[in-house]
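Why predict the complex rather than its parts? Because the way molecules touch one another can change local conformation, and only a joint prediction can capture that. The input here totals 698 residues.
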Amino acid sequence: MNRKMLDSRTKQILFAVVQSYIGNPEPVGSRFVSKKYALGCSPATIRNVMADLEEMGLLAQPHTSAGRIPTDIGYRMYVDMLLSSEPQQSGLDIEKDFFTEYADKLEAMKNDLSGMFSEVTNTLSSISNYIGLALPPKPDCTTFNRIDLLKYRGDQIVAILVTDEGVIKNRIIGSGSNLDQKELNRIADYLNTEYGGYTIDEIRDILIYRIGKEKVLWDNLISRAIKICEQALSFSDEDIFVSGFYDVVNLPDFSDISRIKDIARAIKEKHLILKLLNELSNTEGVQVMIGSENPIEELRKLSVVTSTYKEGDRKIGVVALIGPTRMNYPGAIYMVENIARCISRTFER
Amino acid sequence: MNRKMLDSRTKQILFAVVQSYIGNPEPVGSRFVSKKYALGCSPATIRNVMADLEEMGLLAQPHTSAGRIPTDIGYRMYVDMLLSSEPQQSGLDIEKDFFTEYADKLEAMKNDLSGMFSEVTNTLSSISNYIGLALPPKPDCTTFNRIDLLKYRGDQIVAILVTDEGVIKNRIIGSGSNLDQKELNRIADYLNTEYGGYTIDEIRDILIYRIGKEKVLWDNLISRAIKICEQALSFSDEDIFVSGFYDVVNLPDFSDISRIKDIARAIKEKHLILKLLNELSNTEGVQVMIGSENPIEELRKLSVVTSTYKEGDRKIGVVALIGPTRMNYPGAIYMVENIARCISRTFER
DNA sequence: ATTAGCACTCGGGGTGCGAGAGTGCTAATA
DNA sequence: TATTAGCACTCTCGCACCCCGAGTGCTAAT
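Output of the joint prediction:
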């Protein structure tokens, strides 16, 4: 099953079948391969090889006397070959220096992260015609820059958190305690001087630890402050950016309505996808999950191409494309890789 | 064409056809109406009436010798009758006091408006199985409460705006001017004392006016301050909440793939829907637009049910449902109406 | 004004057939 | 021994056909 077992011609034929099928979704026959891809052998020979490939589980026929289509394993072999060889043609119509310009565009948007990630998923999906996903920087990767606490309406407090990555978040806290603005300022100052440079999660852990420790002092200022901060920092930020559902329904792969329902269900279950991407957020380079390889039931008939983006050396988030298993893998890989690179660039100093 | 022209029995038959067709999407025949709805007359009579209704353009047959289905005009008449009569059965499975509890739930979420509106659209769509929409409070309706300006990284400024409605927005301004925190505080104080109670749009207008007037003084503090504020207040807030696309594909009305593409395109064109809802944001009570009545090309095969919500007497936003023309109108109206009421309640003091 | 009766129409589903595409196998070839 | 040509076979797809049933419109009777 190792691809080393395939001689060069067999590989070429597998390639031919996969690429042809990706190009248009019809089973590809021996005559066609022999004609279109000049491999210097006759349909009959190709038939023999195809029969072998089918035996190995890389190809399948929808029914006797139809051409072959790739199986998930066939795609896998194809993608492995792609990834281990030189970059291919992406098959997308992209200007030569699209991504250098695009990096500048993102750079200009870095002040509005959620806008930026919307832009990213839109671009991902509109160029590739697949579903674009992006996971913004993880909370355990965002670094505390400063916090401000404002008194607001009665005893409520508005907490505004700014991170080094430029993310700004706000939250209203209904603290039972009636602090005045001066006290709030003192608390904020304390946090700002004490915790600059830590990640949000680290600070949270420290604070929670302190709460436990200082229970006794429950009513003094510091412990109330800690309680406020703990609330302020618990931004349950389960957000994920998705776009391109509307392009994807036009793909021939989704001409069957049940397929559309599948993909709709998959997207509806955002938390599952979130979990998947989170798990992938420590991987290096481009990852491809093909059909049945997919850990999530809902995605078993789809493929996912992901890449992480970084701030310096730290991987802080993920972008991805979801499409049919019959996917333009070179193109998707190319897109995801370069978009991730663009994002990384906006995060470097 | 006026419904006064229809005698009681004719109305009843129209009602029967519409309701039956809404209940299950098959052309309804004379025999069926006569049996299921005890109108005390034979199929033949009903056939005659149906022929009349068809002549009037309220019913249509998909083909000769099929039953009748309602036309858009037929639905319109039905809905008009609904709206002018007592509230009907919603046809939804909702607890008696669902909405009183739901209002409490929203009340508890009012600190996080975007979370609240996500919740609203989710509820709208999951109960109705149509597409839920919500337009958050319009900027010309949100009242300035306070603003804070924080120095951030180099000469950038973080502006944080709190409105009376509890909306908090932030924005990074790349002001070329190098003000220190003290000066920023002074600017913020100035705004806070001067403009409390005005709406954002009003303040913007005033500021823009001043910019024009004080062009001469371009480089003094005040004019720079004004410029900053102008930027700070220009929250291009084109957000609209949508959900339920994933439920809607399961409706039999969208068993045809082209219909799904239609609806996907309609939603993709968010700005059009935004415009539509904005135009409706001054209407009173529940509005229904049926199929071809719709001003937006993309929605011509769908129906939209909307209602505004208020803060006191001011209408400040819109909620809506989009579904097939073959829609459970009583249910949709009931939902939209009550959800709007719930939202309004969270905005009253 | 309503109704029973009846002829008529049309869509959907089942069947049968022919064309075309592509295979697998066998025997011939280099 | 590897490749190829030839050929019979298989299966899908599209088309034509037909029949059944549902539902109508019309007419004549009540």
